[in-house]
From TrEMBL:
<protein>
    <submittedName>
        <fullName>Environmental stress-induced protein Ves</fullName>
    </submittedName>
</protein>
<dbReference type="InterPro" id="IPR010282">
    <property type="entry name" value="Uncharacterised_HutD/Ves"/>
</dbReference>
<dbReference type="Pfam" id="PF05962">
    <property type="entry name" value="HutD"/>
</dbReference>
<dbReference type="InterPro" id="IPR011051">
    <property type="entry name" value="RmlC_Cupin_sf"/>
</dbReference>
<dbReference type="InterPro" id="IPR014710">
    <property type="entry name" value="RmlC-like_jellyroll"/>
</dbReference>
Length: 181
């Protein structure tokens, strides 16, 4: 299990200058041919996403105004806070910002190797997938093992079941479990 604070994760600027990414984890590490990858991206202006053939993506709006994702005839979808949206990375997708910058949580999985299911939790739960996953605290305080996690903190793992305990009366946690094919 690895813990992170998104404020301490290194920032990489996009080639097109329209945003930046904080890569949280990648398996295998430091490769473009990943099985799965998690990151948080800031979108500074409208523009096209990079294409990722054979990759499925799940994006969740964390901060900022609504973002419209337009893939032409394939789909047109408006991202709303804390509502994961899945789409194929093969599509040419243009992001249209409605009100300034946005910050988004992204999970990418190689379609032939694994799948990601992204959800929002608001109560104590135990993960099911033994092959990997990631959590990111949206609000409240959460206990994971002997570690206390607060907003903008999280953890990722490659195997095992884990119990996440909500310590306050209210809180939200974004989590993804990875299942290998």
């Amino acid at each position: 299990m690895e813990f992170f604070d998104i404020r301490k994760v290194p920032v990489s600027l996009w080639r097109n200058g329209a945003g930046e990414t904080r890569e949280i984890c990648c398996f295998p590490p430091a490769t473009r041919d990943f099985n799965w990858r998690a990151s948080i991206a800031s979108i500074a202006s409208s523009g096209e996403f990079s294409a990722f053939p054979q990759v499925d993506r799940v994006i969740t709006l964390l901060e900022g105004g609504e973002v419209v994702l337009d893939a032409g005839k394939a789909f047109r979808h408006t991202l709303k806070h804390f509502q994961p949206f899945a789409f194929a990375g093969d599509y040419t997708v243009k992001a249209e910002l409605k009100q300034g910058m946005s910050m988004d949580f992204n999970i990418m999985t190689h379609r032939d190797r694994c799948r990601a299911k992204v959800r929002v939790a608001d109560r104590t739960f135990t993960t099911f997938a033994p092959r990997g996953g990631i959590i990111y605290v949206l609000s409240g305080e959460w206990q994971l093992g002997d570690k206390l996690l607060k907003p903008e903190q999280g953890a990722w793992w490659q195997e095992g079941r884990h119990t996440l305990r909500l310590l306050k009366t209210e809180g939200k946690l974004l989590f993804s479990e990875i299942t290998y094919l």
